[in-house]
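As promised in the previous annual report, we have extended the structural survey to additional targets. Below is the entry for OsmC family protein.
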Amino acid sequence: MTTTSGSAKWQGGIKDGKGAISTKSGALNDYPYGFSSRFEGKPGSNPEELIGAAHAACFTMALSLILGEAKLIAEQMETKADVTLEKQGDGFAITSVHLALNAKVPGADNAKFQELADKAKAGCPVSKLLNTKITLDATLQ
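The corresponding structure token record, generated without further manual editing, is:
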């Protein structure tokens, strides 16, 4: 078992306030986030892009494991996770995550590749954490 951490600081109100995100590893160290970077496309980060990066990384690692169990090794895999945040009632909710994978896996046929990618989508720990619709487009080159 492993435990790691991320942290956030915030000062001010929701629209005029400013925040900073940090990770235990130091990959992010007081990286700015706020209302404008979350809802208005301004520079800075936001929780949804961090969830997307985490989900893409987790899924891709899970698929690497599953491919290895099938005696396949990826030459290259690239995953993008689009995280959708929508207004619902008085608040907001993450309503979906769409994973888009492009992979080069020597010796893999498309049917088996799709089966293994679906298994990784369902089994990766971040997929299990998220209580939302998760879709996948997996392209084998």
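The CA atoms of residues 56 and 81 lie 5 Å apart. Residues 6-40 form one domain. These points will be discussed at the next consortium meeting with the crystallography subgroup.
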